[in-house]
Design goal:
This protein is an alpha/beta fold and about 550 residues long. The chain has 21 helices and 12 strands. Helix 4 packs across helix 6 and helix 7 packs across helix 16.
């Protein structure tokens, strides 16, 4: 906090134990208090929620909804205010007539393109495809199949094939979920229930990483033995590359390591694994540790050119999680998907469990399948998501699945990749503004999504002031002190990188959620805070 009103070091250490997302609330309170005392507007760069939204797929959703209502009324309009349900027979022709009566617009073009893509590329029956969309957006049936609607699954599969670096031979089975966070909850639970993992197992986590992935393994029902694989590589100038030394990756070759959890590109550095690391993990999964379960969260992959996911490269061992939230600006929609290769290690492993364990699982799923022992892992996950007994009402709401499909189709039909280029351009401008205000070169890393920047203050201090000052700062202050000073003095909220198991003196800056001029203010305030520290350092040094 401010030099005149410092929080004691014991209090600072207490705050260091908090998750960055809980500490954020304390910082917001401080920033808000300062905002009322001064002319500063609060700048919250702690959120990952982007401030852009993909408009055309949303407009298409609303227009499709209007069509679905007319179809429901067409089916049955005996009572005012009540309709029936959209019927598939002849619906594709009626949809084309509906679109022809609309003024020309991007959303009309997207909907017409969606029908053409489904029929021409994916070989759908036109009435079945349009009928599924109309019925699903109307929300008049439970999701059937519960894992994902048939045509929409194929559309999202095509999108993931494009976005994740290619589908494996045989493809994936997909499970639509209420965002990536729900996907992770379902995954952890089902892996333990079905013997893929057991409480107390040794697992590896690639760090720095999204804080909940550090916290979940230590919950009472898991109690995993965690091995950290640290992104400790540095460039010649001392800057972090956020890549992994070969010695760290070799930890995964130990068969006692049962699972690997990662975010790729990482969070907070938002840097994707380089090709050598991907290839080595693929080799380890194929040879040295063939039972390794890989769970990868690839929400930021769409922000990197040429991205490749382990769900593509080491598909048999990998469970992929993707969320639409960041790329399309739709966190409130809660749109996520789990991908499991059709040819995977999980189904055979379940089939080869000890007899007693297999019998218990057969009993668990006996009410939902005539041959429960043959139930695929991904379908067990769907049932587990509703405690099995409520499996008949499982599945992501059908309107949500339609919006997911329209986001996917917008990108599939965007042959010039305009949406991707625009998102990347927004981030690049903001990154340049931040770098200029910090008086550092703009990072040039082809592996970086730059959705977040993790700034190691110690590296910055050594480069722009001195190693002696850096040592003094670490001795005299706690790592969270700068984020408190920023909140109290500048009404700026950043997350402490140490809470992600990154460098203790690092901060995470979201490049996605603020207007460009805010990044200039963040850089200016960071320099001002460091100048304050430096003045304090010089004064203390002179008195010795």
């Amino acid at each position: 906090m401010s030099v005149d009103n410092e929080v004691d070091r014991g209090t600072e250490k207490k705050y260091e134990r908090l998750s960055p997302f809980e500490l954020k609330d304390e910082l917001i309170d401080l920033a808000d208090e300062n905002m009322h005392k001064t002319a500063h507007a609060m700048i919250n760069a702690g959120r990952g929620n982007p401030n852009w939204t993909s408009v055309v797929p949303r407009s298409a959703f609303y227009l499709l909804g209007r069509f679905a209502v007319t179809e429901a009324v067409r089916d049955w309009d005996e009572f005012p205010g009540l309709g029936g349900m959209p019927q598939s027979a002849g619906i594709a022709a009626r949809f084309e007539q509906f679109l022809a009566a609309e003024p020309a617009s991007d959303e009309v073009e997207l909907l017409r393109g969606a029908v053409e893509y489904g029929v021409g590329t994916l070989k759908f029956d036109a009435d079945a495809w349009v009928g599924e969309l109309a019925d699903a957006i109307h929300g008049d049936h439970y999701p059937v199949p519960d894992r994902m609607l048939t045509h929409i699954e194929q559309v999202v599969h095509a999108y993931l094939d494009q976005a994740m670096g290619g589908a494996p031979a045989g493809g994936w089975d997909l499970f639509a979920t209420e965002g990536g966070t729900a996907a992770m909850c379902y995954l952890f639970d089902s892996c333990v229930v079905n013997g893929i993992l057991a409480p107390g197992d040794r697992i590896a986590i690639m760090t720095p990483i999204f804080t909940p992935y550090l916290e979940i393994p230590h919950l009472e029902r898991y109690q995993f033995d965690v091995v950290e694989v640290q992104a400790s590589k540095n460039a010649p100038d001392g800057m972090h590359t956020w890549q992994y030394p070969a010695s760290e990756i070799e930890k995964l070759a130990d068969p006692s390591v049962k699972a690997l959890f990662l975010v790729n590109p990482s969070n907070p550095p938002s840097v994707m694994l380089d090709s050598a690391t991907l290839e080595r993990i693929k080799q380890i999964a194929a040879k040295e540790n063939p039972n390794l379960t890989i769970i990868t969260d690839d929400v930021y992959g769409t922000f990197v050119e040429g991205f490749q996911s382990l769900m593509s490269i080491a598909a048999a061992n990998t469970i992929g999680v993707y969320s639409f939230s960041k790329y399309f600006g739709c966190t409130g929609w809660r749109l996520g998907v789990i991908a499991v290769a059709k040819d995977n290690i999980f189904d055979p492993r379940i089939a080869n469990l000890p007899t007693a364990q297999r019998d218990a699982l057969t009993k668990r799923y006996s009410t939902i399948a005539l041959q429960p022992e043959k139930l695929k892992f991904i379908d067990r996950m769907v049932a587990d998501s509703r405690d099995v007994a409520l499996n008949h009402t499982a599945g992501l709401s059908t309107p949500q699945q339609v919006q997911m499909a329209l986001f996917s189709l917008a990108d599939l039909l965007d042959k010039d990749a305009r949406h991707k280029q625009n998102c990347e351009a927004i981030i690049a401008r903001r990154l340049q503004t931040l770098a200029e205000s910090l008086q550092v070169p703009v990072p040039q890393d082809p592996n970086a999504a730059n959705y977040y920047v993790e700034l190691d203050l110690m590296v910055w201090v050594k480069q722009h002031w001195s190693a002696e000052f850096a040592q003094w700062l670490q001795t005299e202050h706690e790592p969270v002190d700068p984020v408190f000073r920023l909140a109290e003095q500048g009404s700026i909220v950043l997350l402490n990188g140490g809470g992600f198991d990154g460098p203790q003196w690092s901060v995470r800056v979201s490049m996605a959620n603020l207007r460009q001029d805010s990044y200039a203010q963040i850089g200016q305030w960071l320099r001002q805070i460091m100048d304050e520290y430096h003045s304090e350092f010089q004064n203390r040094t002179k008195t010795r």
